[in-house]
Amino acid sequence: MVTNNIEEYKGVYVFAQQVDNEISGIALELLGKGKELAAKLETEVTAVLIGYNVKGLADKLAEYGADKVILVDDPELETYRTEPYAHALASVIEKYKPEIVLVGATAIGRDLGPTVSARVQTGLTADCTVLEIGDFPLVAIPGQEQKHNQLLMTRPAFGGNTIATIACPDNRPQMATVRPGVMQKIAPIAGAKAVIEEYNPGFTPNNKYVTIKEVVKAVSDTVDIMDAKILVSGGRGVGSAENFKILEDLAEVLGGTVSCSRAVVDNGWKPKDLQVGQTGKTVRPQIYFAIGISGAIQHVAGMEESDLIVAINKDETAPIFDVADYGIVGDLNKIVPALTEQLKAAKAEKAAN
Amino acid sequence: MKIVVCIKQVPDTKGGVKFNPDGTLDRGAMLAIMNPDDKAGLEAALKLKDEFGAEVTVLTMGLPKAADALREALAMGADNAILVTDRVLGGADTWATSTTIAGALRNIDYDLIITGRQAIDGDTAQVGPQIAEHLGLPVISYAQDIKVEGDKVIVQRQYDDRYHVVEAKMPCLITALSELNKPRYMTPGGIFDACKAEITTWGRADLKDVDDSNLGLKGSPTKIAKASDKVRKGAGEKIVPDSPEDGAAYIVAKFKEKHII
């Protein structure tokens, strides 16, 4: 492996994924995180925008924290394909020498990231959920150099049963793919402008260029509960199909989706495709409301990986409280509508400011 | 047509994750299986063999006991099996692993290489594309359908909200999704033959055009700073509010604190 001169590598770079000329949410999340890392390293955040006729997207990247945008714009880059995109990103890395490169752990990034990291001969840590700047080794070991200002990348493995923190101390850039929905975007700065630098390394089709024969977009009018960021899930305690209305109102205010437990499907209140649990779907939203759900192990198995779990149940001893981050003991028929009203008020207040 | 399928033996995490009393993972109690995405890749290769009469070779890198996964592949219908095993290869990250496998593949003729998208122990999805990069091949990741027409493959490449129908000239590398198919069972005759079959075993010396500095733990650019079995999530806060409004206000306050609203 080529050991490069680490001192030459500066700056935090983010692959600004766009699809159909729309910036993906993950790109903005990475800019938010990148800005934080860059502040610690006293450097800048650069977005690498790759596509065809995508210059117009640069302002949005600036509003979300990019100090600089490197634009690689070429007809070969109109639709994602591994090779021209890998050539674009690898060429940017070779020319500009960033110390950190962040890529979204999407179906695109998990293909682009490994290809580029192998090409520029550095390490890549997959599906990270925490990124920090720190020392490697974490604790100084006599006889071994402790390096400072390293990117420490934490990721789950083994189906989420183990976690590891990984560093890339001897090679640059330090590369990570980052799980979507984990990092925070910054509040956009209206009117912010970034320095745009255009760079085209030249694209000559070779054996690695595949041909796209057809693009088939999924057509679906119902949201798959596995894709939902917020799930408002009801159980037997909701009492009736009609009473799910109060859950739907709460979901609407949060931009969430309603799901349910097995008992609800067995009672015919909701269809099977909304069922969470071992015999239903495994979900991992950012927020999971368990309302009137007792929390049988089969249900918990399908939702315990949710980032934040809120439980509302009248039974203080319900096992759902054992996995909930926030639990409220009480009557869901009164608490849920009150919560909907207060969230509406809080949103209105925020919008007014 | 010659197809090589790269497989990995992994501990079974599905339906059988076992924990020690202290909440850590009990690896010893878990079964070793052929990684599911790899098995789907093998099935895709065997289907092409049924259709076109391809020769299917399975290759794995691992400890000597990984030969069990190769024998299972032979019993399903693979023709040859290669085990890459050597003490100096241990502790490899995805860079060192892909370098090793590419070094082994340089000894073999192939039209098509199939790997699983990702293994259920590491979940990285990196080794397939990195092998392609080392060998200078086109890569098509996340395949949900594979067809062969003449010297070309036609693959449905899955994305988050769509799929692309992609055509590539062989030789190329494809990473397979479990959704691709339902792998066949081993046949009794296949099991009998697989038990007796010879497995080719290669060590460090058999890897072609590979530098020692890219192998094993030492050749891995990523280093583990800290690893732990995840502590199972415990109970958080629970309140019994004086009124429904108080209960709701508690949640709203928590959401504000966490910048959710």
UniProtKB/TrEMBL annotation, chain A:
Keywords: FAD, Flavoprotein. Its cofactor is FAD. InterPro entries: DHS-like_NAD/FAD-binding_dom, ETF_a/b_N, ETF_a/FixB, ETF_alpha_N, ETF_asu_C, Rossmann-like_a/b/a_fold. It comes from the Bacteria. One of its GO terms (molecular function) is flavin adenine dinucleotide binding. Residues 12-221 form the Electron transfer flavoprotein alpha/beta-subunit N-terminal domain. Pfam families: ETF, ETF_alpha. Binds 1 FAD per dimer. FAD binds at residues 236, 261-262, 275-279, 292-299, 313. One of its GO terms (biological process) is fatty acid beta-oxidation using acyl-CoA dehydrogenase. Belongs to the ETF alpha-subunit/FixB family. This is Electron transfer flavoprotein subunit alpha/FixB family protein.
TrEMBL record, chain B:
InterPro entries: ETF_a/b_N (IPR014730), ETF_b (IPR012255), ETF_beta_N (IPR033948), Rossmann-like_a/b/a_fold (IPR014729). It comes from the Bacteria. Pfam families: ETF. GO terms for molecular function: electron transfer activity. CDD domains: ETF_beta. Signal peptide: none annotated. Residues 22-210 form the Electron transfer flavoprotein alpha/beta-subunit N-terminal domain. PANTHER family: ELECTRON TRANSFER FLAVOPROTEIN BETA-SUBUNIT (PTHR21294), PROTEIN FIXA (PTHR21294:SF17). This is Electron transfer flavoprotein small subunit.
